[in-house]
Write a structure and sequence with these properties.
α10 (217-224) packs parallel to α11 (241-248). The chain has a single domain (6-233), classed as Aldolase class I (TIM Barrel, Alpha-Beta Barrel), CATH 3.20.20. The protein has helices spanning 17-31, 48-55, 81-87, 97-102, 107-119, 132-136, 140-152, 181-199, 201-206, 217-224, 241-248, and strands at residues 6-10, 38-42, 60-64, 91-94, 123-128, 164-167, 208-212, 231-234. Strands 1-2-3-4-5-6-7-8 form an 8-stranded parallel barrel, surrounded by 6 helices. 43% of the residues lie in helices and 15% in strands. The chain is globular, with a radius of gyration of 17 Å. By secondary structure, it is of the alpha/beta class. Bound molecules: 1,3-dihydroxyacetonephosphate. Involved in the gluconeogenesis. Catalyzes stereospecifically the conversion of dihydroxyacetone phosphate (DHAP) to D-glyceraldehyde-3-phosphate (G3P). Homodimer. It comes from Candidatus Korobacter versatilis. Pathway: Carbohydrate degradation; glycolysis; D-glyceraldehyde 3-phosphate from glycerone phosphate: step 1/1; Carbohydrate biosynthesis; gluconeogenesis.
Amino acid sequence: MPRKKLIAANWKMYKTPEQATAFFRDFLPLVAGHSRDEIAVCPPFVDIAAAVTAAKGSNVGIGAQDMFWEKEGAFTGQISTAMLRAAGCTHVIIGHSERRQFFGETDDTVNKKLKAALAAGLTPIVCVGELLQEREAGLTEDVLRRQTVNAFRGIGAVESAPITVAYEPVWAIGTGRTATPQMAAEAHRLIRAEAAKAFGEPAAQALRILYGGSVKPDNATALMSELEIDGALVGGASLDPKSFTSIVKWGM
Ligand code: 13P
């Protein structure tokens, strides 16, 4: 069965609630009735309420960019999965390379967050990807294998069903340099092989693996036409309603 593609926006630290509302006012009419691909937008935490209100009843899901694995407690600054669900989120990004680079995210915290997101019924988007130095040193496969195996640790085949992985080579993020569809497909095959070891072949065949890193309107069709690429995680080009629409409607 073909995997339905997910085109997800990661707004990172951009837009106020008012700007989020304005985005949806322009964006929703442009993608109204689009059902070929699943669409999600992940704004900053403080914009989630505005985004959920604006997107209510539409074909666009709202997600968070991070979460904490504990249910509640003295964890200043953290947001739980129950809070995200109550706020109307359906998706959550876990282990983005910027969180790994700047905020101490590790393979172990990614695993804890992934388990908590699954338990809460959120669709997790788990990010993996190698640094430029790692690619140049021929370590891409080792890094992807390590990140994937550790993320999936202790998760069963049945529970794994909602997991989505995003392959985001760090050297392609925000740089205008994209992996070629062939490079991405090769990485995706490796990730899928690891998923098969962890969850079995049927679950691995159903697993969606997105590509992220300088996805733009002019390269989206080439990337999304690749059978191994099950969608996109889009940063910069998702901030503008028209440009994100062109990516959602790749090839149309
Ligand atoms: P850019 O699309 O801005 O390169 O960002 C990619 C990304 O990190 C999405 O999570």
